[in-house]
Amino acid sequence: MPIKILSMKKNNKATVNASCKQLMSLASFKSSTDLSVLFGGKRRKNSKLLKFIESKLETINKVQIENSNGDLGPDSILVLAELYYALDRWQVLAGNNDSAVNTRRTKGIEGLYAQVVKLLSYQLQIPINQLPNWLTENFTVGMTDHGYEVDYQNRSALYYKEQDREVYRLKIVNGVIKQKQWWAASKKDKWVNMNTEFIQTKHGSPGTIKDKHCGYVLSVVGDFYSGPHKSGTLGKHDGQYHSSYMGGRPVLCAGEIQVVNGRVKHLNTGSGHYGPAKGYLLNVINALTVSGVSETSYKVSYHGAPSAVSAAAMRKRLETVDVKVGGDDVSHLKSTKAAKYNNGVKAGLVARMNKITAELAVIAHFGTSDHTDGIKRTNRGRRAVCAICSKAGLDGQMQQDRFKKRNAEALRLEFEKLEKIVARIK
Q1: What span, in angstroms and rounded, lies between the C-alpha atoms of 270 and 171?
Q2: Which of 36, 76, 146, 188 lies at 20 to 30 Å from 231 by C-alpha?
């Protein structure tokens, strides 16, 4: 989990929305989400997500009781952000009518969620409408320069649209990971226990990922996506990478995962496209825990780690030691190559944008007086060209005719896409 929050400012709080300086108590939350009248209270203890929310709320309650001035330190902001994502996850599941949550608790969940949003806004001194951007900046990981190079310079990655990536979304039922049989046309909508060795061996590119593993990403709303890792062809947009599922957008974590008959055995942060630091593993452990996967049943590791440890041991390490290390918010790839964001990668994308602009200008000038008045015959009887065509290297009529047939709309769309990407690169 990144910890840029260590450098957050602590002044001018009077200018920030301070309508909620204190979260509701754990007792109040339990009361607002109590279904004992209808269900005898038996289902509450079975909800791992609800238990996770309650544990984080209890932690914040204790901190607020101990700090009369209302200020929350970086560690508490981290817990508050985890609470935010857990509540957001609950609402996503409720919106999809997922059996993992009981929608009758919606009012109580939404009440706490509203308070968390206001408290984060107050503590961070930012308007509520800027909170999603702050969370994205501080609690998600974006693509590395390697990712941009593969996806946008080499144009090797396939990006799935929302309806297309759904087939790769995983479902976790009572701690068992299930996936759709996308490899079987007649059964592609049927769920089966996941087996990563089968997926990568049968459908992925050899040597692109750790043995018996598949690539995975954890989206900002808490959904896991996984499938075969496949190398792409230069300019063909046919490679399946970590970035394929969310279209290159930031994620909560990415890496490699090993699953045998639905049971997680190991996962890591092995992703060249995202290169998450070890702190982001906390996002993955949390997501699996609230889905019923025991933290003692699988092991985790990060880039450069000497060995894998249990998820429980990793959680303890991240929450008590590593999360306080000031530089751990930087991915292991960005930490050594960040300069390329402002030169090699960005310059290459800008150069392509400039080329598109020039090509569109040439296409637009055909049929204008700039083109027709520039056409003259030389003394040798050769057809001359206008200055614009000459600069573009279109010295013959055949070359000009081919250039006229270029799809101007497709070029404009490519320019707009590159423009958005360049705006994201810092």
Answers
A1: 22
A2: 188
What token pair was written down for 62? 């204790």
What are 96-133's pLDDT values in tens digits? 888 888 888 999 999 999 999 999 988 888 888 888 88
**CA angle, residues 159, 165, 167, in degrees to nearest 5:** 145
CA–CA gap between residue 30 and residue 45 (Å, rounded): 12
Number of H helices, E strands in the chain: 17, 9
* Contact (CB, 8 A) for 253 and 281: yes
Output the DSSP codes for 306-338: SS-EEHHHHHHHHHHTGGG-TTTTS-TTHHHHG
pTM as predicted: 0.73
SS3 state of residue 209: coil
Q: Which residues contact 242 (CB under 8 A, 6 or more apart)?
A: 147, 215, 216, 217, 251, 254, 255, 271, 272, 273, 274
What is the distance, to the nearest Å, from the Cα of residue 237 to the centroid of all Cα atoms in its chain? 20
**Both ends of the chain: CA-CA distance in Å?**
20
Q: pLDDT (tens digit, 9 = 90+) per residue, 126-161?
A: 888 888 888 887 788 888 888 888 988 888 999 999
